[in-house]
Amino acid sequence: MLSRRNFLKKASLSAAGSLGFAGTGVAAARSLPGLRRVTLEMPDLPSAFDGLTLLQISDVHAGLYMPVDRMRRIHDIVTALPLDLIVFTGDQIDRRPIDADMFTEGFHGLSAPLGVYGVLGNHDYYLDQRRAKSALADAGITPLVNRSTIIERENARLALVGLDDLWSPAGGPDFSLLERPRNAFRLCLCHQPQGWDAARAAGAHLTLSGHTHGGQIALPTRTVNVARLQTRYVAGPYREDDAALYVSRGIGVGAIPVRVGAPPELDVITLRSPAASVGVAA
Questions:
Q1: 245 contact partners, CB below 8 Å, separation of at least 6
Q2: How far is CA 78 from each of CA 1, 54, 68, 270, rounded to the nearest angstrom?
Q3: How far apart are CA 234 and CA 9, in angstroms?
Q4: What is the pLDDT of residue 212?
Q5: Which of 85, 89, 172, 231 is the most buried (most CB within 10 A)?
Q6: Hey, is 37 helix, strand or coil?
Q7: In degrees rounded to 5, what are phi and psi of residue 113?
Q8: C-alpha to C-alpha distance for 134 and 38, rounded to whole angstroms
Q9: Distance between CA 77 and CA 138 in Å, rounded?
Q10: pLDDT in tens, 137-190
Q11: What is the pLDDT of residue 22?
């Protein structure tokens, strides 16, 4: 049996360990995101777009735990990268009107040769659609909310389709946008990865999502991951036949400012075309 002294000592050590664990998680949540570089081979990608490099920024959650100075530092990291395209995949703001102003100030001035685009997430709707879209536009980011745009290169076309959030009070995503044009590579932005099944069925070749934060608290040795309560698409790439999904862990946090086992990330994604590789080999 433990003596009272030994019991108190063991309890103190356990409490100290818990505090250290929590402290590490808080520090990780407030750290600058790392760069996660991924190459995705897409069978339907036209060779003209082989090597296209895009940056996915997800779940900024501008607000209490994502101040303007941290966003400006992330902005500087992004500006230094050689990119073709930049996309934001939702939850740019947390929920307050001031958060929208903070986001605009933090990310104003980003540019890329093929443009900078963004969709909305569920947190953006905690404020309202109009204000959330204005925050994007005021930062120089083109809102794609149930809208698409065509990017052309050497007579090949890439359709960038931005879907509304699955929980949007405005009616939800219009998956029919992914049915056309049939002769284009269709890149879909959908905040919640739960939308991938419908997006893939509608014709999306590649879908980029966020929302999960990679679980935010993810303990692989115990298979504990909060995101698994909502979806089996937690983080990273997934494939089904010739279609792919990529889920970003994002850079911010929600109500709980802790990250354990799911560090913040900026995702640098390079698309490769098998047709281009065959051409080089020949």
A1: 193, 196, 200, 206, 207, 208, 209, 233, 237, 238, 239
A2: 58, 11, 15, 15
A3: 39
A4: 94
A5: 89
A6: strand
A7: -55, -35
A8: 31
A9: 21
A10: 999 999 999 999 999 999 999 999 999 999 998 889 999 999 989 899 999 999
A11: 44
Q: Are 145 and 162 in contact (CB under 8 A)?
A: yes
On whether the CB atoms of residues 42 and 206 are closer than 8 A, the answer is: yes
Ranges of the chain whose pLDDT falls below 50: 1-2, 4-23, 222, 279-282
Q: Which of 208, 86, 190 shows the shortest CA–CA distance to 142?
A: 86
> Which residue is listed with tokens 């108190």?
8
- Is residue 160 within 8 Å of 117, Cβ to Cβ? yes
- The dihedral through the CA atoms of 268, 139, 68, 93 has a sign that is negative
Helix (H) or strand (E) holding 204: none
| Among the listed residues 183, 168, 178, the one whose alpha carbon sits nearest the alpha carbon of residue 147 | 178
